[in-house]
Amino acid sequence: MAREQLNSAAYSWHAFAERQDLAAALAGHVAGRLTNAIAERGTALLAVSGGTTPAKFFASLSSIPIAWNKVTVTLVDERCVPASSPRSNAGLVAANLLQNAAAAARFVPLYQEAASIEDMSEADSRMLRSLPWPLDVVVLGMGTDGHTASFFPDADNLEKLLDPSSAKVVLPVHAASAGEPRLTLSLARIVRAGFLALHIEGEDKRKAFESAMASELRKPIRAVLDAAERPVEVFWAP
Ligand SMILES: O=C1O[C@H](COP(=O)(O)O)[C@@H](O)[C@H](O)[C@H]1O
C-alpha cells in the first residue's frame, strides 16, 4: 500500500483488483477497530455513509461476529427522506449492514419528523450529543465532484460545514447538486475519528480523488483530509 503525503493531507492508498476483495478487507479493518474500541472503553461508535458504493462492504461487515450489542451505528449524512424512500441512507444501512451478526447493533438515524430541515438538524444534534463520542470509525464516500458526507461544493453553508472548530454535531445542507436537502455530521466531528476511511470505486472517482489532491481549488474531500487528525485510509477498486 502506498503512503502519500501531500502538504498537510496525509493518506494511505489501498488498491484492490476486485470490489469484493475491497469489501472484505475494509470490513476486516473496521471490525478490528470496533473490537479494539470495545476493549478499551466498553463501547464503539461507528458512522457510515450511504449512496450506492457501500452495499458490498456493509454485507461483509454485517457477518463478522464482533460484540455488535456494544456498537452504536449512525450516519455520516442523510438525504431528507424517510427510511422507506429508495434515496434513504438509513434504508441502505438497514437492508445491508443491520443484518446477520450486526443486527444486534444500536442504530441512530438522522431523518426524523420536523417542521424544517433546520429543526431536524437541531433535534439530531440534541439526540446525538449523548452518543459515546469521539467516533471510533468513520467510513466516507465521495462523489466525482469531490463532495464527501453532504459537503457539496455548491452548498449554501459550505464554510460552516467545513469549519474544523465547529461545536455543531449535525448541520442542514441546501445544495442544488445534492438532489434534496441534506443532514450531515459536521467536519469537526468526522475528523476526530480514531479510524477514518474513504471508500471509492471506479476510474472516475480515482481521477476525481487525485485531482482533488493536486488542485489548488480545495474540494470538500481535500478539506477533510487536511483537517483529519490521522492519515485517511483510502480504499479503492476499479
Ligand atoms: O449522496 C451521497 O453521496 C456520497 C457518495 O455516494 P456514492 O453513491 O457515489 O457512493 C455518499 O458517501 C453519501 O453518503 C451520500 O449521501
From TrEMBL:
<comment type="similarity">
    <text>Belongs to the glucosamine/galactosamine-6-phosphate isomerase family. 6-phosphogluconolactonase subfamily.</text>
</comment>
<comment type="pathway">
    <text>Carbohydrate degradation; pentose phosphate pathway; D-ribulose 5-phosphate from D-glucose 6-phosphate (oxidative stage): step 2/3.</text>
</comment>
<dbReference type="GO" id="GO:0017057">
    <property type="term" value="F:6-phosphogluconolactonase activity"/>
</dbReference>
<dbReference type="InterPro" id="IPR005900">
    <property type="entry name" value="6-phosphogluconolactonase_DevB"/>
</dbReference>
<dbReference type="Pfam" id="PF01182">
    <property type="entry name" value="Glucosamine_iso"/>
</dbReference>
<comment type="function">
    <text>Hydrolysis of 6-phosphogluconolactone to 6-phosphogluconate.</text>
</comment>
<dbReference type="InterPro" id="IPR037171">
    <property type="entry name" value="NagB/RpiA_transferase-like"/>
</dbReference>
<dbReference type="InterPro" id="IPR039104">
    <property type="entry name" value="6PGL"/>
</dbReference>
<dbReference type="InterPro" id="IPR006148">
    <property type="entry name" value="Glc/Gal-6P_isomerase"/>
</dbReference>
<keyword id="KW-0378">Hydrolase</keyword>
<feature type="domain" description="Glucosamine/galactosamine-6-phosphate isomerase">
    <location>
        <begin position="18"/>
        <end position="228"/>
    </location>
</feature>
<protein>
    <recommendedName>
        <fullName>6-phosphogluconolactonase</fullName>
        <ecNumber>3.1.1.31</ecNumber>
    </recommendedName>
</protein>
